[in-house]
Amino acid sequence: MGKYKRILLKLSGEALMGGDNFGISPDMVDQFADEIKVLNDEGYEVAIVIGGGNIFRGLQAGHIGIERVQGDYMGMLATVINGMALQGALEGKGVYTRLLSAISITAVCEPYIRRKAVRHLEKGRVIILAAGTGNPYFTTDSAAALRANELGADVLMKGTKVDGIYTADPEKDLTAVRYDTITFNEAINRELNVMDQTAFTLCKENNLPIIVFSIKERGNILKILNGAEIGTVVS
User: Domains of the chain: which residue ranges?
Assistant: First the structure.
C-alpha cells in the first residue's frame, strides 16, 4: 500500500450512464463495483460520493419552472438512487457496504453521522455518501471535498469522462493540453471547471490532494494508488 490508505472517491452521475443518454447502465455499475471491490480487498478504506446528473440536475429545474432549491433537493434524491444501485452491486459481490444519506430517508439508508462513518471505514466497510451536503446550492464536488476532509481521507480521487485537467475543454478545443500537476491556486485562478471553486478551496485550506483521472479505463484507481502517473494531481 502506498502513501494513501483512506480514499474518498468521487463518481459523477454521468459516468454511470455509460454510452446511454440517461439513467443507470448495468455494465458501468458492475465495472465500478469490481474496481471498488479490488480496493477493499487490498485493504484500502473507501468512501464514495456519487453525483446524480444521470437522473436529475438541480440546474435543470429552472427550465421547467421549478425553483432552484426544490431542484437541488430533487438532485439529492437522484444521488440516493445511484447510491442504492452501487450498494446493491457491491453487496452482490460480497462487499460490506453502508449507504449514508445527508437527508433523512431511514427506510433505505442510514443518516450521515461522521463518527459512525469513520467507524464503518475502520471496520473495512465501503461507505457510499448520498444526498450531497444535504443543502441546496452545493454541488456533489463540494460534498466530496467536505466529506473527504471530515473523514480524514488521504486523497480525493475524482473519476471523470476525461483523463485529467486540461487548459481548456478537450472536447471543444483540440489544442487543449493536459496538466500532470497543478497547484490549487492555479486551478482556482484559471477557473478550471473540472471541480467547483468551493471544492478546490476546501481542499487547499486542508492540504488535501485531488487526483482527477478517467474512470472509463478499468484498473486506473489501483494503478494510481500503486504510484502510476495517471491523470492530474492538484496539490
Answer: 6-234
- What is the value of pTM for the model shown? 0.95
Q: For 183-203, how does the pLDDT look when each residue is reduced to its tens digit (9 = 90+)? A: 999 988 988 878 889 999 999
For 73-89, what is each residue's pLDDT tens digit?
999 999 999 999 999 99
Would you give the distance in Å from CA 124 to the centre of its chain?
A: 19
SS (H, E, C) the chain: CCCCCEEEEEECCHHHHCCCCCCCCHHHHHHHHHHHHHHHHCCCEEEEEECCCCCCCHHHHHHHCCCHHHHHHHHHHHHHHHHHHHHHHHHHCCCCEEEEECCCCCCCCEECCHHHHHHHHHCCCEEEEECCCCCCCCCHHHHHHHHHHHCCCCEEEEEECCCCCECCCCCCCCCCCECCEECHHHHHHCCCCCCCHHHHHHHHHCCCCEEEEECCCCCHHHHHHCCCCCCEEEC
Compute the CA torsion angle 31, 36, 42, 45 (nearest 10 deg).
170
Q: Which fold has domain 6-234?
A: Carbamate kinase (3.40.1160)
User: Can you tell me the distance from the alpha carbon of 212 to that of 88, in angstroms, rounded to the nearest whole number?
Assistant: 26
